[in-house]
Amino acid sequence: MSLRQKQILDLLIIGFGLLLVLLWPEGPGLAVGLLVLVIGLILNVVWIRCPKCGIWLGKAPGDYCHICGAKLNWKEKKRD
Ligand SMILES: [Zn+2]
Q1: What is the DSSP letter of 64?
Q2: pLDDT digits (tens, 9 = 90+) for 20-72
């Protein structure tokens, strides 16, 4: 997957978790939704990283790493 695909998938997971919490707060939606949210946030930290220095790129990543200045290729696919 490319960085962009990981970012989109992660947003979908977080969105799904939020939806569960909002639509089903009285039932198991709260617990399951929070679990999905936590998984989404962990995946964000694991996936959205600088390919050069490995730092987490944060919530609003740009075209360049804010630590090492490496150009980020959002469409490049890697075998991972
Ligand atoms: Zn970097």
Answers
A1: B
A2: 999 999 988 999 999 999 999 999 999 999 999 999 998 667 899 999 999 99
Residue 71 Cα to ligand 1 middle (Å): 8
Nearest to 72, CA basis, from 51, 45, 41: 51
Interval between CA 35 and ligand 1 midpoint (Å): 30
For residues 71 and 38, is the Cβ–Cβ distance under 8 A?
A: no
Taking the whole predicted model, whether its pTM rises above 0.85 is answered as: no
Q: 77 CA to middle of ligand 1, Å?
A: 17
**Neighbouring C-beta atoms of residue 50, cutoff 10 Å:** 19
Report the Cα 3 to chain-centroid distance in Å: 9
Give strand pairing partners of 56. Answer: 49
Residues 6+ apart with CB under 8 A from 52: 65, 68, 70
